[in-house]
Amino acid sequence: MFEQLSDKLELALKGLKGEGRLTEINIAESVKEIRRALVAADVNYKIAKEFTDKVKEKALGTENVLKAVKPGELMVKIVMDELVELMGGQSAGIQLKGNPAIILISGLQGSGKTTFSGKLAHHLLTKKGKRPLLAACDVYRPAAINQLQVLGEQIGVPVFQQADSKDPVSIARMAVEEARRSGRDVVIVDTAGRLAVDEDMMAEIARLKEALDPGETLFVVDAMTGQDAVNTALAFHERIRYDGVVLTKLDGDTRGGAALSIRYTVGKPIKFVSTGEKMDTLDVFFPERMAQRILGMGDIVSFVEKAQEQFDEEEAKRLEKKIRKNKFDFNDFLSQISQIRKMGDIKNLLNMIPGMGKMTKNLDIDDKAFNKVEAIIFSMTPKERANPELLNMSRKERIARGCGMKVHEINHFIRQFDEMRKFMHTMSKGQNMQRMMGPGGPFGGQVGR
């Protein structure tokens, strides 16, 4: 996410590292490179110029102050503050008002509306304790209804649809009545998209909004479309006056221009960002955290929050006792892998840790990284999983046959496991074990429920 922009901004600010102080000359050179980086990231030139003008003005105002702060660090702080402001300043929460609360989803075909509808339902169900209902109002694309039904079954949320009706307004109204009848407190209305902005689509979505009077209207946009995303967002807003924007496919080859430009152009906040196909890959948008990631600082707050969602204090205490006795086994290891998987995409998680983004940029890291480990452990007997010291050569040969690997690969894994177990045991003798196992520690949040 934002790799190109992050790299170019780093180069733009790098020239200040050897400087003793900020001067009009080095500020001008740095600002020029920042503007080039933004334009290359598909940010509108007018927006990029206004942004860098503000950065320059603030930087010039610090020429004779803050002598103890290094010029490079000071400029990074100024750029970060302006990035945060450009993207909205503060996070904007979703409005859930009405009985039931109605959320209208709009956007072009292929932007990810249907997948987002499912993710939003999952988010409201698991994070907000709501009882959502999905309404299938895309009457033109049969696959959209089927897709929504599959997603609904996957997350345990009912889907209202009328196969014999071609009137989305009528379907949406019936969905609201069904929600009231069945005690559902949120209705998420998935609407039809088109390959381009056209009058028929605009008229239909306008009729839906007028008929439903939703508490929240969201515009879903594919972040990979760059500046075109901003133009489409503006066209939709002029017609239906939506309340917020959702950026999808931020895990793709996006240059970041949409995220930096939409808030400025439309004047509406980005409320959610989506980074994958899985139902738990939806995040509330925080401008400050995004600015930190763009500038290569990671996003440790989001990382800790994801860890805390999986954290169980009682299980952590049980695990701590096992580690202190050097009894951490393969079953415990499997439990940790399971919790890491639940936290989300592995590479995205690593990118949240300061400094890890650059280290993993060219590495192919995903959930499959754990598949070999799981295959090895699942090829063990229950007794072997609970007692790693039983693994002699004959057992290793059997395990290798069971998982389709070589004996030397089994040996390599067991050596790594032993080293990790020794390290954890050594650490447990100190005073830092509780912090290690708690939220925010290196093992915090990865503890099984």
List the secondary-structure elements in sequence, H or E.
Answer: HHHHEHEHEHEHEHEHEEHHHHHHHHHHH
- The CATH class of the largest domain is identified as Alpha Beta
What percent strand? 5-15%
| Strand order in space, largest sheet | 3-2-4-1-5-6-7-8
Helix/strand/pairing category: alpha/beta
- Count of helical regions: 21
Please outline the major beta sheet: 8 strands, mixed
Count all strands and give the number: 8
CATH superfamily membership of the largest domain? P-loop containing nucleotide triphosphate hydrolases
Task: Round the Cα radius of gyration to an integer and report it.
Answer: 26 Å
CATH topology of the largest domain: Rossmann fold
The first-to-last residue Cα distance is: 31 Å
- Assigned CATH architecture of the largest domain: 3-Layer(aba) Sandwich
Uncertain segments of ≥5 residues (pLDDT<50)? 431-449
Helix amount: 55-70%
What general outline do the C-alpha atoms trace? flat
Number of domains: 3
